[in-house]
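Thought: the user wants the 3D structure for the chain below. I'll pass the sequence to the structure tool as-is, report back what it returns, then summarize two notable features.
Action: structure_tool
Action Input:
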Amino acid sequence: MTHWYTISPTAAERLSKVPDLLLRFREAFQEISNLYHWSPAPSSPADQAAAELSSLDPLIADSHETDHQLIAEVVQLFLLSASGHLGALASLYKSGEVLFSPPLLIRAVIENCAHAVWVLGDDPDEPSENRLARAYLEELLSAEEAKKNAGYMRGKSDPSYITASNNYKTLKQRILARFPGTTPKPFGSKDLCLHGQKLPRPGESVVKMYELTEEYGGTINSKEASGIYGLLSNMTHPTLYTARQYRKRLDDPDANHQKAYQQIGISSIENEARAALAAFYNALNYTVSYFGWPETVVADLEDATRRAIPDFFI
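Observation:
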């Protein structure tokens, strides 16, 4: 049995518009970062949070990062990661490698965007310390993973593990200093509740993001969001049906065997790209609104999107 797949000229022409749009989304993030340097605009929700969370880290004598800047850093890193995955996705679409790898990157885009939205929250008037607690929960999980994997890869005597372990311990001390009511016992637990906030499990943040966008006119409900995330997860991890669903067989009249080929419609490919673009657009737009920045870049991005995919916002 021989496997191969091709893309028709018509589909290739439609597909050619997608990579440039993906790169335009990545450039929009870079442009916003360069224009506003993650500083809140006056009277914005972020400006209020910056006033409420203006203290420097109590455990770092030469710290120049306020509590609010920690929140901004966490959100920035999530969107930075998502924008990088959009660039990689553009490379795949340019090469026509559209069957197996795009869902891996699309899931990464959606997850990073969902975590950025979760940190900012769905209520601009909520106490700023709630956002700070969510940012610290993300930092704590990251530091714990860094420590764990450094130990697995190089052993606990390696400098990389020692550094990661010290960073993790320092971060726990910072959290205890910032939120004195927190007890050390729950650290390392996935059920850690910090200032009333709890880190969502895999998939939960994605569902929450779609629930939020549905409130503002989105067409995907929480049940459909769970299905989308489940499918993307299946396409990321070894799952047979995700490869089999595209496979077709034809009898070969010149041989005594069948030929197998992979077939996917251009609409399916475009819909996958839309999932990544929509998640990033919503997260970026939400971030711009929170920081109170002008919507010029977002408006330009909307125009570019309508030119490439006319029914994107319908």
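Final Answer: Structure generated. The chain has one domain: 9-58+66-128+201-308. Strands lie at 3-4, 193-194, 197-198, 247-251, 258-262.
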